[in-house]
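hey so i finally got around to running the thing on that chain from the lab meeting. sorry it took forever, my laptop kept dying and i had to restart like 3 times. anyway pasting the input first so we r on the same page abt which one it is
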Amino acid sequence: MVTAHTWHPGTGRVVSRWPVPVALAPDELFSMWLVRAALAQGVDPLVLAGHLWPKWRVWTIDLDRGINDERMNTLARESGIDAATLRAASLLPIAVVTGLEPEAASGIWHWILALGSRNRKRRGGLQYCSLCLANDVRPYFRLHWRLAWHTCCAVHKVSLRDRCCHCQLPIEPNRLTAAAVMTSCANCKGDIRHCLALSAADAALAFQKCADQVALTGAGSYGAHRVQAKEWFHLARYFLMLLRCAVRHQDSGLGRCLAVVDPSVSRLRPPVTGLGFEMLPTLERSGFLESVGALIGAGPEQLRSAVIAESMNDTSLRQRWRSLPPHIDSLVHEIPQLVRSRKTKGNSTPAPMSRQTVLYKWARLQRKMRRAS
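ok and heres what got predicted. didnt touch it at all, straight out
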């Protein structure tokens, strides 16, 4: 059987202070293990967290980013699992490999799905494979289901889901009650193991496997060039930015340039909400990642030929990015700089907004109204 990459080995049987010891499963996500441990004791996740860390509102933050040593040591004593093993189940080690600066404590982490927390409620951030959960003796949520480049299950070759198939709301195991099972939807109580699995796109799965390998080995390739992991993920994020700019203006030089390297770019459509990549639905991320994989596989030589053929200028490739990947920076210094002429002010009537711009503004207004309510 094909297996996914192993991010951490989990534990064997443990000796715990809890009535029911709960081992950490291989590749299990830290916060979801804590939820599973609470349900095994017959209590809500809120109750177990309150017992471990009184007066700390645990479920209002992203626990998978890591917790301080004092709190982790408390959990280690109670659970019987050492602190180092529990930290390995968090997202911080992977985030550092992909380029996160150690001092970054707040805001969205690149390549990590954002939870969109408001108190204990969440707007996303957790994916799942219904077939994996159905086949588990004790269902659990995998660490790699929080990675933004994951859109497929490598074992079952199906697309991951990021919503309950019964009520279409986000998956929020942290809000489950003591009587629930791990695969219950906290909103409608439906069992997500019964959700229909849809076939994954081969190109999206190929990019996912490639990115996994880069994160695990610390290096990858850009065409025929070997690059370190941080540079590879920086390059992938740069191409994501270029693609999102290009799909907003399909007839632009940038759009034509990228389509020369990867013809499937012409089939991409802008995200309806205009949200950041780490907040996009699984299917929208999948389409962009397929094209990113093609652009990285093509290498700098093909991109350079397309840029020259379209007479691109440096501004089109920079897109206001302060720090470009080295291979892109070298290309930008080869091509002409755009010289802008100063325009005189006039009383011309502004052109009407495009449909996509109106949708962006409407989605932003809806988010503001939800935050205010």
